[in-house]
Amino acid sequence: MREDFLVTYKRSDSPDIGRLTLQYDSNEIKLYCNSGSLIQIGDIQIFIDGYILPRDIIFDEYSKYDPHSLVHVLYKKFDDDFILNIKGFFCIIILDSYQVKIFNDQLGLYPCYYTSGLKSIDRISNSVDLLKSDGFTLKPDYSSIVIKSLIHRNVPGKTTFEGLEKFLPATCLRINDQSVLKSQYWKYTSLLELKKKKRASSFENEANFMNRLFSQFLQYLNPDKQYISLTGGKDSRTGLAALKSLSKNPVGFTYGNPMSRDVIYAGLLADSVKIDHYIIEPESSVDYFEDAVSDIVKLGNPDINLFRLHRFNAFKKVSDKSDSQSAYFAGYMAGEILMGIYYDNLIFTNFITDFWENGSLNSIADIAYNYFIKDQCFDDKAVLDDLHKLECLNPDLSRSMKQFHGLFEIGIPHHAQDIFISSNYFSYTYPFFLDIDLLEDLFYGNFNLFHTDNTTKNPFKRYALYAYNLNIQHLLFPQMDQVPFGKRGSYNTREYLRGSFYWSVIKTIRFFTERKTYPPSINYDETFRQFLLQWLNQINSDRNSELHMSFNIEEAISELSLISGTTQEGILHKYSNIVMLYMQLNYYK
């Protein structure tokens, strides 16, 4: 459901991109996109991919305008500062008086990539596939590969390929025949200024604000149908409460083992509020893994990890049931924003969290060796230089400040994978806790990680961790109060609202008396390891692959062959990284 584009600058060659057409040509600047996706209004032309809507402060005045007209009216009034008045998941291109201006959303959820020639940026696109069509050849950036092994993400603005860079969040790129200027129109650190101006807010006010944001989203975009991912947890339930308070009946879906705790409790919730609920059980066959990962690579986004395949499958299957204008609601990042970061060695690796606790970086060479990376293929200094660009690894900051920066440098880019994938199957993906209006509200008030402590073992102090979600849910849709949450020592909102003493006692009793066990929602068995082994053996046989210069493939095969039983994602990253990189390099040849 995306509109691709390619902008070239000072390039004489015509790219071989049959599905797009040349829509703008000023000799030095060319824009290729689908016919009809570049809209002329007055003296400017506007391209929008993704979706936009007016921000809360101007919504009542400007919600009467369709997206392209909204951009036009705001641009004519505020010039480039128009972008401060809209939000969403988007890339906007404005053609104005021989200038091309490109903007992405505040959090960089929408991916834009660019390459550089001798003097400046020469290609920009939302698809690496299109950059390849214009002659760009992908080559591994070994320093970035090492960093991805350390933190499971790229440093903001970088990719794992030489010469391929990515827009930072809130990028504004201005191009004319003489120059290219790049800036950021918003920075997440502005939330810290709001934190300093802290104001008190009641749960009633917060519930009303949440309700208003959902209402604005539905009113402006008017999707035919709503979908929401459900788990046994609290975050998506807040979104469900908001939708139900507006008399909407979204279709719920959960991916995972049907006998897992998450799936069972999600089903209880769906039954309680009388909504349809689909369970997408992970498939387990080598052919399935082959097809799913191959399709992920073809999406043209090299940031996506191989382990998103089950989510990819869920979005694909659910979207088969969707109408032409569908919205997907998800509570990504709510827990981290409200309560702080949990150490799971997945989103936030041990390399990062050990630094937060101990203040020193673990040996890069040792971790690279553990990930089968040959030490002669990367430069320690280059790796450290890039790592030092991350504020979450700034030794001069407090742990809470490091975690704050980690939300935006690591956490949001992680969840952006799912947001991007879902945008290919739903018209509008709404990660409501990443709505910029809600983010600013949470940091302006007391409802964020700076006001909680998720490391405490004191049950009365832990009570505060869940105050926002459970009070908002109760106020928006109290009919859900009796539905238990899917955690060991389960409780429901009604029990929670009786106070910290009652809640802690009943939770503790249930925690120690519960006898029923549940299988994991997602795990990886012998079949998945066989899929990885087949690819590693293929790479080992492909003596022309440049990956032999950087990875000890035989050692990876030997070590993976020794693993048995079911395994968790974190154990397999060092094998899957090699496979995904090989598949990407082959596809983009």
Report on the structure:
The protein is built from 23 helices and 17 strands. It has 589 residues and is of the alpha+beta class. It has three domains: 5-184, Glutamine Phosphoribosylpyrophosphate, subunit 1, domain 1 (4-Layer Sandwich); 190-340 and 415-513, 3-Layer(aba) Sandwich (Rossmann fold); 526-587, no CATH class. The protein has a six-stranded antiparallel beta sheet. Helix 7 links the parallel strand 13 (225-229) and strand 14 (251-255). Helix 6 crosses helix 18 (467-476). The longest helix is centred in the last third of the chain and has 25 residues, at 399-423. The radius of gyration is 24 Å and the shape is globular. The model has no long low-confidence stretch (mean pLDDT 92).
